[in-house]
TrEMBL record:
Domain Methyltransferase: 44-138
Keywords assigned: Methyltransferase, Transferase
The keyword Ribosomal protein appears for this protein: no
Coiled coil: none
InterPro entries: Methyltransf_25 (IPR041698), SAM-dependent_MTases_sf (IPR029063), Trans_acon_MeTrfase_C (IPR023149)
SUPFAM superfamilies given in the database record: S-adenosyl-L-methionine-dependent methyltransferases
Protein name: Methyltransferase domain-containing protein
Any one GO molecular function term: methyltransferase activity
Any single biological process term in GO: methylation
Keyword set includes Transferase: yes
Amino acid sequence: MSRYLPGPEASMWDPEQYALFASHRGRPFVDLLARVGAERPRLVVDLGCGDGPLTLSLTRRWPGARVVGLDSSPQMLDAARVLDTDRRVEWVQARAEEWDPTTLGAPVDVLVTNAALQWVPGHLDLLPRWVDALADDGWFAMQVPSNFDAPSHALMREVAARHPRAEDLLPVLHRAAAVAAPTDYLGVLASLGLDADVWQTTYEHVLDPEGVQRSPVLEWVRGTGLRPVLDVLTDDAERAAFLDDYTAALDAAYPRQPWGVVLGFRRTFAVGHRPPGPREPGRRRRLGRA
Ligand SMILES: C[S@@+](CC[C@H](N)C(=O)[O-])C[C@H]1O[C@@H](n2cnc3c(N)ncnc32)[C@H](O)[C@@H]1O
């Protein structure tokens, strides 16, 4: 993680746009949680919880748990509260990097953060704080996209570089460096005394099989990675010039097949389990107990 730029989290998230591909976006969360072995956690926290459906799934898996969903976006939290008709979750608006886990008043049995830490500058350095908040036998589980070299993102940078506002656009797109290598996450979790279980998966998402979207990959990134660009390009003509150029480039990189448009998407997962017993950071432990 070589360099951090100011976070984009102050910008607007659009829950409706984000939810367009809910089942594709939910799959990594399910795969992540499949490696968490907690049976009867008392306190579960979802950091960067987003618009709610995945956090609510935690209340169904652990009906007896107190569940806290934390996010910096008021728009996402509003959408989450609407979904949470039973008021099962404590929704908290805060920036992950400023959040103090001790304010919960109890150790955390499961701390999950899915597809959020790429927006949190310096998150590798924050892992010790979150791991320290874990109870004995507690679990930390994170997933971040690792697709910043994929055509969807490389083309975004190329189009930005030839746009008249290149000087403003390129800095906000340089956050590709904001995600660490899998071995870095493994090293931090293991050095903190957790049993670490780290892997990468590339999903081949088949988007828009019905053929109703002009550019499904554009619609996908509009809900996430393209947001910083759209925040800069508030002028209609400047925005249209970018989107025309970018859409043409995406068409060539992601051609429509009879079954839809295939978006390859690599993600990094890191799960850490704190073994019961005295804390001994740095000790060597058996891997893969999840
Ligand atoms: C891609 S969404 C993921 C949401 C949810 N975890 C999921 O898997 O669907 C990223 C979320 O991170 C939140 N976020 C971005 N920066 C944040 C920060 N610094 N602190 C807390 N949440 C943040 C955004 O508001 C957004 O809801």
